[in-house]
Every structure is written in structure tokens, then in C-alpha cells.
């Protein structure tokens, strides 16, 4: 089944070349189907890249998915033209009276700042609070995961001695959890960040469960007790060359940084990196959509309850 996106979105052409079925809103409106409504809060500066990466993973499902894109009105993007934002994105005021089956909150390059120093933090807090009652399952990614854990549970982030970048091996800690159904005991995933959340801080909250962990990269997947909130500290959505492009960008800016670990063959940045995480990336998003969005969400979204209400456990 297809994913539906705003008409004219640049990601459509690239995805269609990969034989991914994408339709625009006009065609979707003329089908008598109740699609899953997914809201993507895209905090990344390279919005078109992130859109394409996430839409590719959401497409690997027999379910019809209608995607809407959200931006922070309190932040002026320096990398994306205003015309693009106005054409394809909505602000919070435009969606706050709506309800969604699922939501993805992306990462953002603001890790060196305290949460409260981020210019759109108050608006993001309103969105996260709203999501508890208006979205059935929320997937928080990278900095979005750190922000969500801090806002909802008070879990702090910690500075790392240097940037954590590379492809890391993770061990599944709860193989019976539906989010990890079909996963191997160990799997690869990209990370790219300057901060971390720690297992000992998460362990203070019995309503949270660590699902996957890496000896090098630390906590990777965290689940809320009822499947309404998930936190991913890495980047399943990254493409083969994403870390390479980040590395070259940082070097060009004069940042002293090591090449991404376990990424370039022979640690040689001139060589093409192997793609070793995509199958688990597709499986992860497929499991999330199937077990925690499609099978759990009420047909009538007006019946949604607070994600953290123990009465719904």
C-alpha cells in the first residue's frame, strides 16, 4: 500500500525511482480507506533528506499511511527556504485540534545546548504534552529521544568526551518485545551525537524499559510501559553515505573529529561504506507501525487517552 504525502514534495521523485508507491493527497482523498495518520515533526536542518529517509522506512508496510509534516513556528530555519516550509509543512496551531495514530519527533543539531536554551523548547514542550492525549504512539529519535526522556521523565543527557559517530553493534535485551520481533540477537545501527542518556538514569523509572544496548554506544532503544512512547538514540533512517557526508562537513568546518567507527572499510574515508543496518531499520519501522500504531490505535481517534495514564496499562 502507498504512503500519501503533500503534493509536490521533492521526496516523491526519489522514492518513486526506488519503486516505492507514493501518492499525493488529491488521489488519496478519492479513496474510501481510513489510512493511518502519521505526523512527522522534522527538526533537522536538512529537511528534504530527513523526509526521504523516514518516508522510505514508513513505506515498507501493507498499510496505507497518510503523512503530515510539522515544523516549529518559533524557529526560523537557516537551511530551508520559507517557501518550502509554507508549501509542505504545518505549524502546531494547524494540527493541535487533530489526532494522529503515530508521530515521529526527529533529532536536531542542538545537543551542546541545555534543553531550555533551545529557542523552540517551549513550543516543543507544548507539542510533547499534546502528544500524550492526541497521538497513539510517538517515536522519538536521537536528540528528540533525549528531549522526550527529559521532558516526560526527567532523564538527563550527559556530554560525551567526543562525538560518537559510526556503526555500532547492539544486543537485544528483550527479544519477546513486539517492537523487536524478527530481530537477530545482535544488530547494527548508526549513531551520530555528542551527548548520551545513561542506563542508570533510565533504570530509576519502572515505566521505562531498555530494549537494546551497545557496549560502545550505550542505550539505543527505550520503550514506555504501554507502547505509547519509544525513544531511539541512534539513526536507523540514515542512508549509506549519511555519516560520510557529516564527516566531510565537519572536517570542512575545521572540527577535529575522528572518522566514524566501524564504517569505512579499513577505516579509509576514501572507500565506500557498507550498508549493514537497513534490513533491521525496515523491520523496526514495520513493527512499530503494525504492533503499536495499527493494532493498538482506536478506529475513532477521539477515543485516545493519556499515554502516561496508569489506568490504561
Summary?
By secondary structure, this protein is of the alpha/beta class. Helices cover 29% and strands 25% of the residues. The chain has one domain (3-163, 195-241, 285-302): Rossmann fold (3-Layer(aba) Sandwich), CATH 3.40.50.
Protein architecture, described:
There is one protein chain. With 313 residues, the protein is an alpha/beta fold. The protein has one domain: Rossmann fold (3-Layer(aba) Sandwich), CATH 3.40.50. Helices cover 29% and strands 25% of the residues. Strands 1, 2, 3, 4, 5, 6, 7, 8, 9, 10, 11 and 12 form a twelve-stranded mixed beta sheet that branches. Helix 6 links the parallel strand 6 and strand 7. Helix 1 packs across helix 3. 41% of the residues are buried. The model has no long low-confidence stretch (mean pLDDT 90).
Number of domains: 1
Q: What is the percentage of strand-forming residues?
A: 15-25%
Kindly report how far apart the N and C termini lie. 32 Å
Do you know the CATH topology?
Rossmann fold
Q: Quick one: CATH class? A: Alpha Beta
Percent helix, as a range, is 25-40%
In total, the number of strands is 12
Q: Runs with pLDDT <50, length 5+?
A: none
Q: Given the C-alpha coordinates, what overall shape results?
A: globular
Amino acid at each position: 500500500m502507498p504512503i500519501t504525502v503533500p503534493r509536490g514534495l521533492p521526496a516523491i521523485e526519489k522514492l518513486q525511482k526506488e519503486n516505492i508507491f507514493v501518492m499525493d493527497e488529491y488521489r488519496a482523498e478519492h479513496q474510501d480507506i481510513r489510512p493511518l495518520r502519521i505526523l512527522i515533526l522534522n527538526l533537522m536542518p536538512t529537511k528534504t533528506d530527513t523526509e526521504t529517509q523516514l518516508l522510505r522506512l514508513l513505506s515498507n508496510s501493507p498499510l496505507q499511511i497518510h503523512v503530515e509534516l510539522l515544523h516549529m513556528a518559533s524557529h526560523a530555519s537557516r537551511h530551508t527556504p520559507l517557501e518550502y516550509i509554507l508549501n509542505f509543512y504545518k505549524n502546531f496551531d494547524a494540527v493541535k485540534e487533530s489526532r494522529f495514530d503515530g508521530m515521529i519527533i526527529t533529532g536536531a543539531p542542538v545537543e551542546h545546548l541545555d534543553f531550555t536554551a533551545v529557542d523552540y523548547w517551549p513550543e516543543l514542550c507544548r507539542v510533547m504534552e499534546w502528544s500524550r492525549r492526541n497521538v497513539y504512539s510517538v517515536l522519538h529519535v536521537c536528540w528528540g529521544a533525549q528531549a522526550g526522556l527529559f521532558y516526560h521523565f526527567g532523564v538527563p543527557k550527559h556530554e560525551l568526551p567526543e562525538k560518537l559517530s559510526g556503526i555500532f553493534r547492539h544486543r537485544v535485551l528483550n527479544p519477546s518485545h513486539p517492537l523487536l520481533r524478527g530481530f537477530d540477537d545482535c544488530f547494527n545501527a548508526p549513531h551520530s551525537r555528542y551527548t548520551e542518556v545513561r542506563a542508570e538514569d533510565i533504570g530509576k523509572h519502572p515505566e521505562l524499559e531498555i530494549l537494546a544496548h551497545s557496549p560502545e554506544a550505550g542505550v539505543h532503544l527505550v520503550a514506555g510501559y504501554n507502547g505509547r512512547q519509544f525513544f531511539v538514540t541512534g539513526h536507523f533512517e540514515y542512508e549509506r553515505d549519511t555519516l560520510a557526508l557529516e564527516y566531510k562537513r565537519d572536517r570542512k568546518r575545521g572540527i577535529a573529529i575522528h572518522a566514524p567507527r566501524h564504517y569505512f572499510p579499513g577505516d579509509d574515508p576514501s572507500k565506500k561504506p557498507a550498508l549493514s543496518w537497513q534490513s533491521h531499520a525496515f523491520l523496526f519501522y514495520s513493527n512499530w507501525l503494525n504492533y503499536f500504531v495499527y493494532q493498538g490505535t482506536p478506529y475513532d481517534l477521539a477515543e485516545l487517552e493519556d499515554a502516561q495514564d496508569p489506568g490504561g496499562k
